[in-house]
Design goal:
Blueprint: E1 2-7, H1 10-26, E2 29-34, E3 38-43, E4 52-58, E5 68-72, E6 81-86, H2 87-94, E7 104-111, E8 115-122, E9 125-126, E10 131-132, E11 135-141, E12 143-144, E13 163-166, H3 170-180, E14 186-192, E15 196-202, E16 207-212, E17 217-219, E18 236-242, H4 243-252, E19 259-265, E20 269-276, E21 280-287
Antiparallel strand pairs: 1-5, 1-7, 2-3, 2-6, 3-4, 4-21, 6-12, 7-8, 8-11, 9-10, 13-17, 13-19, 14-15, 14-18, 15-16, 19-20, 20-21
């Protein structure tokens, strides 16, 4: 098995750091799935209740997120690599770039006395006499997941939704959800084809609703060959989800340039998608909940 990837765009490097930082706050274990055309980062999914969080980065474009990307999986039939590590360890390895510029970051799967993901970066230091380009290196212990256990980390890439609506600014939602999580354990999101998004919490005493208008809402894309011929006939879709879990996501997400979209499967699931630059996105799926 082989894996090597290089990032040399400063904004992409900072976005990569933000993804790892976000995931480390949501879950301690990080799963890294290396495929020929993409890199998937995901937290250990709470499959028992249908909650998933992952990031997908396109690896096919040399002017995209990765300037170099090489991999060789376990065999030709299963050309992938699954490995797990502590998200906090990955975050520490990248922490230098939070406040410092680097020329590149290189990720490489190596084996010393145990499998490790090597993280190498180069920076420039200028003093009165010399210009130095020291290299910073870390080796993160990883566990390579055997083929027989891959199904434990499967994520629902092909989920049908009913309505898809653009979301307002993350800062606005962060403040709103921070208040609502103290009012009720659940929040209901309503999307309508009139381009409106509402967030509603209900208690025995009061119902509090927040409305956003002039947001583009369209029937959600459905996977499969009949996607265009079988659009939803719903003019409104809603989903009731755990307020604290949704608020926790917006408390941790901190991307530079992102387009946020809510995809709603009526009364079943909510998907928040964060489209970043250079063909990378983060997906978060929350199942509908009925607890009071």
């Amino acid at each position: 098995m082989k894996f090597r990837a290089v990032m040399n765009d400063g904004i992409n490097i900072k976005e990569f750091l933000n993804v790892i930082s976000t995931f480390s706050r949501m879950q301690k274990n990080l799963i890294i799935n290396v495929q020929p055309s993409k890199l998937l980062l995901q937290i250990e999914s709470e499959a028992y209740d249908g909650q998933y969080l992952w990031c997908e980065i396109d690896a096919t474009l040399r002017d995209g997120f990765f300037s170099e990307y090489l991999m060789d999986g376990i065999d030709t039939e299963h050309n992938q690599i699954y490995m797990t590590c502590l998200a906090a360890s990955f975050l520490r390895a990248l922490s230098y770039v939070r406040n410092n510029a680097v020329e590149y970051i290189k990720l490489k799967l190596i084996k010393t006395h145990m499998p490790c993901l090597a993280v190498e970066m180069s920076t420039t230091i200028t003093n009165d006499q010399d210009v130095l380009t020291p290299k910073i290196q870390h080796a993160i212990p990883v566990t390579v997941v055997p083929r027989s256990e891959w199904n434990q980390y499967a994520i629902p890439l092909e989920v049908e939704y009913d309505l898809s609506i653009a979301m307002p600014a993350g800062k606005s939602l962060r403040g709103l959800l921070d208040k609502k999580k103290n009012l009720a354990p659940t929040v209901t999101l309503y999307a309508t084809t009139n381009d409106e998004l509402s967030l509603v919490v209900e208690t025995e005493v009061v119902t509090v609703a927040s409305h956003y208008r002039n947001l583009k809402c369209v029937p959600a894309h459905k996977p499969g060959p009949d996607a265009d011929s079988n659009p939803t006939n719903l003019s409104e879709a809603c989903c009731r989800v755990d307020t604290k879990k949704l608020a926790a996501l917006f408390e941790t997400i901190n991307f530079y340039d992102v387009i946020m979209t809510a995809n709603i499967r009526h009364e079943q699931a909510l998907n928040i998608r964060f489209d970043m630059r250079q063909h990378a996105f983060v997906n978060y799926i929350l199942p509908a909940t009925n607890f009071e």
